[in-house]
Amino acid sequence: MTEDELINSYPHKHLLGIEGLLPTSINFLLKSSNNYVDYLNNKKNGKLDILKNKICINLFFENSTRTRTSFELAGKKLGADMLNISVGTSSIKKGETLIDTAMTLNAMQPDILVVRHHDAGAVKLLSEKVNCGVINAGDGPHEHPTQALLDALTILKRKKKISGLKIAICGDIMHSRVARSNIHLLNTLGAEVRVIAPATLIPKGIESLGVNIFYDMKSGLKDVDIIIMLRLQLERMSGSFVPSIREYFRFYGLDREKLNFANPDALILHPGPMNRGVEIDSELADDIDRSAIFEQVQMGVAVRMACLKAIIDHKLKAND
Ligand code: NCD
User: Fold this and answer.
1) Which of 82, 132, 134, 176 makes an SS bond possible with 75, Cβ 3.0 to 4.6 Å?
2) Best mutation site among 118, 170, 178 for ligand 1, i.e. most ligand atoms within 8 A of its Cβ?
3) pTM, entire model
4) How far apart are CA 102 and CA 216, in angstroms?
5) Using CA atoms in the order 76, 80, 86, 91, what is the torsion angle rounded to 10 degrees?
6) What is the pLDDT of residues 279-291, one digit of tens each?
7) Which atom of ligand 1 is nearest to the CA of 177?
8) Cα–Cα–Cα angle for 318, 16, 24, nearest 5°?
């Protein structure tokens, strides 16, 4: 592949994670997403036909509001036929295995499968069994690549750069795929990434991903430009990782007092769903000068449009 092709395309069949992607691929997806933000901002723009006659299936084994809707909207804006399959109404409830479900859907010859699954690695496994492109919409605590891309786009829109920024990811690092994908992406693009959490919520060996670890908000938030708050993922916890929710909020919940430890123009991000009064103070979450939480949702549609298009373009090229 020529250098020009590397800069101007996404050279993979699937989007399974951020780990291992070259900066050129990440920048290409971000640039393409940014073009779609401009497109979406112009209310006069209707549907595009870039994905006309393409079939895209959303296969979600876990609950989702934002991610599933966002993929659906993104596909529809590009003119694709979007289908939604959720566990509650499918044969998965009747005991069909992941691979059988994938093979059944594969037989219907979709162009893209967007998959969310509760096990790390399940989406990659599935991608090895089907013919179409696969996008990981979150696999257990492993990766959530489109979330990291939309977080990066939100940061770029507000701060005009990523390289050189000090970024703190705070909360349940242990169970968070958002944290992992963000660490890979932000490090690849030259940010300085730190994680802040109680010791029980820091996974072993996380420093090997190139982050500094802090156990308290005061030292962790010092001089940071971006604060990414994470939800306590109670559904992934067996046993108790924090003494009590009240205590957790007191020490790790982001409120005005703790925000003052960061740079005066530090921006707050949260992937949602938010637990107000647990990891973030409700009034702060709604402060549009400090928090970009709803902007993230807007960026999400543009990012997913860019990812769907990149996967289809790769497929078309491969068939040349
Ligand atoms: C995140 C997820 O599902 O990993 N949410 C999302 O995709 N917007 C984070 C979370 O559930 O806390």
Assistant:
1) 82
2) 178
3) 0.96
4) 44
5) 160
6) 999 999 999 999 9
7) 4
8) 70
